[in-house]
Design goal:
The structure is a homodimer of 411-residue chains. By secondary structure, the first copy, chain A, is of the alpha+beta class. Chain A is built from 13 helices and 16 strands. In chain A, strand 3, helix 3 and strand 4 form a beta-alpha-beta unit. Chains A and B meet through strand 8, helix 8, helix 9, strand 9 and strand 11 of A and strand 8, helix 8, helix 9, strand 9 and strand 11 of B.
Chain lengths: 411, 411
């Protein structure tokens, strides 16, 4: 009994056509026309499998394949279908299609486990609309309430609460649909790695031990704008010089004080006024630090802050450091990790036990239930880009492993 | 016989009200409504002084106060009235108002020198519309022809040629109105320093010996975008790290290989996709290098290029360096510098012989005639910002010096 590569391919290709930017990767924001089309496609599949479908106030979809004991805690599996701007067709979708496919296999083989198996599709994982990642799973797991949904807003200033209503949902009921403690026996998410480790080491499967914690800061240096030609070097108060020195030392900081798993990234920089012949008066940049080991984050951030202060003084500029996002490192459930590993061995798959540098919806579930994650390789580690790719054979291997794992947990 | 502080103040204040961004500095782009209003104000003044006014195909205004010998080469003085976005009220305007004021003084005292004295207002010095600085003086001095005016265009893709036509000018005639060799005896421009040297040394006047040459480069590092959490440091091809290292070494490069007058500025940086949790795939920045001594530019650029290549290799990223602007260093005319200095001594003004880090319209005139420049202090060196300031007493001192110098050259 195995999953079907052809059906997996067909589902992924079909979903990739619900896309606001054909020719420039896949763009499917939550609550968009494309999101509606993708939801309709999936709901149609769920209907053909006779699943019990419920949709909460922000659009999280749950589709239940009933087990023999309808009162027993459910085994949940799924992921998300929203994307970043110009993203790829596998991120999120692999886990949703995988969940659909394993339920199809159970259905066609008339397998009825003790525990119900539920496909879950989380809304707005990427934060593309409201700049708040995993807003859907946060709502479903009680981390976001109505007040939070009214606070976060899109670039037009419209709140997630209002956008969800405009999409035909009833966000005022979102708190009633939260997952209750004891409701879920285990949550398994299949996802593309989004990193190059599996591809680099030629492994088909990653079994996730822990999800990295993270802290994101904005550092803003403020100096004095002046003419680039008329201001001698000794009279400058140049925030660009201070910023460049700090950014250029990030790798050194990680090597000096981080653990072997600490990573740090400056992904965004803003320069004001950003004109070639004007010394900037403001340079602001983000630093994203992650590690499965909280000590790595703690040490790197402390050293980083020290150097920021040093550079500000050396360049006679003001500085502000603000924490804009954070998440705690999460150890996944040892029992589930063990179940996945045994199943991988039985299937003869090459695998690596590894950490996830990215946060996923499953991490939101970790306080409520036992969580496991299965990674499949991302070619060259590319993700959130049009070139994002995972061979369908690897996705099928991940689906077969998901099937075996879920059947064992739900039996 | 001296200039009038009250009239100077009144003119500068009046011009500052022709402004697209009240409350946020002065914004007066060439060919805008505000430019039209400022031109009308000045043309009204010229009319009351019975000046012969001519306007060329791109809007350069020349207003002649006739000398006794109408065939003798003219003495020219003036500057520009266009500004950068959210600039100050003195840059350019000081030299135009100064030129107007000295002609007023000649007119009210019925002084008629041998040589005609001509006020000149150059169009589009700042390059705010077409990203090409000194486009007006380049046209007037033959450096730009019709083809060039058709090539440079604004952010809507409309050429300077077409915008000038829409403004009611006849750019097709621009080449006929070029200044001919022998037509101008000398050009003197009064301008705010735009740097902090005079303010720092408490001098009222700067007498410019030379205008710095400059080269501006765009350096583009291209690597691979990837997820900030899932990509180990050793698998990254990160253009931000390479860029930050180069930028952080600019000051060191100047100290190691520059002259005492070399300056270097990174004023603009672009990061793609510029998202906190994505390793950038492209970081591009400008480097503006200036020096009155060409050896300083040459040595700094060579060392800069070497380090750019080193950092690209170290971070496994591609790199491209493009020269986007350049100007040669210009020595101003020794005879004119001497005339200004003698006049400054006679007026009992504190002065400093200095270099100009910024290029000015006068530099465009240097191939056609003898050029001199008079600087007045910029408070704290601030320029191209709303806070730009020069005490009116200092502007009046500059105008008195301009008057004495022009009368001596035109007598």
């Amino acid at each position: 009994m195995e999953t079907s590569l052809e059906r997996i391919r067909k589902d992924i290709e079909a979903l990739s056509h619900f896309n606001a930017t054909p020719g420039c990767g896949v763009t499917r924001f939550s609550y968009s026309k494309e999101d509606r089309q993708a939801r309709d496609y999936l709901l149609e599949q769920f209907k053909s499998l006779d699943l019990d479908v419920s949709i909460d106030g922000v659009g999280n979809i749950r589709a239940r394949y009933l087990g023999k004991d309808s009162d027993a805690p459910i085994v949940m599996t799924g992921s998300h279908i929203d994307t970043v701007l110009n993203g790829g067709k596998f991120d999120g979708v692999a886990g949703v299609v995988g969940a659909l496919e394993i339920v199809r296999v159970m259905h066609e083989n008339d397998i009825r486990p003790t525990h119900s198996v539920e496909i879950v599709i989380f809304t707005e994982e990427e934060g593309s609309n409201f700049y708040s990642t995993m807003a859907g799973s946060k709502a479903l797991t009680g981390k976001y309430g109505i007040d939070d949904l009214k606070k976060i807003s899109n670039e037009n200033g419209v709140s997630m609460f209002d956008v969800a209503r405009q999409f035909g949902l009833t966000p005022e009921n979102v708190e009633e649909h939260r997952i209750r403690p004891g409701e879920v026996k285990a949550m398994i998410e299949l996802h593309v790695e989004q990193g190059a480790v599996l591809d680099d080491e030629k492994k088909t499967i990653g079994i996730v031990n822990a999800i990295a914690g993270m802290k994101t800061f904005v550092v803003t240096f403020t100096g004095k704008s002046n003419h680039a030609g008329t201001t001698p070097m000794y009279l400058r108060e140049n925030p660009m010089s201070a910023a460049a020195q700090v950014i250029s030392e990030v790798e050194d900081i990680l090597q000096q004080v981080g653990t072997h798993s600490t990573v740090g990234t400056v992904g965004k920089i803003i320069c004001v006024p950003n004109v070639p012949n004007v010394i900037p008066n403001k340079v602001a940049f983000t630093l994203d630090v992650r590690d499965v080991d909280p000590r790595g984050i703690r040490a790197a951030v402390a050293e980083f802050k020290k150097r920021v202060a040093d550079k500000a003084a050396a360049h006679k500029v003001e500085v502000d450091i603000s924490l804009i996002a954070q998440g705690q490192a999460i150890q996944l459930a040892g029992t589930v990790v063990g179940t996945i590993e045994t199943a991988a061995q039985e299937l003869g798959l090459t695998y690596k036990k590894m950490n996830s540098g990215a946060v996923h919806d499953s991490a939101m579930m970790a306080e409520l239930t036992d969580v496991g994650m299965i990674f499949v390789p991302s070619v060259a580690g590319r993700s959130h880009v049009p070139e994002e790719n995972t061979p369908f054979e690897d996705i099928k291997a991940g689906c077969d492993l998901l099937l075996k794992t879920v059947l064992r947990l739900a039996r």
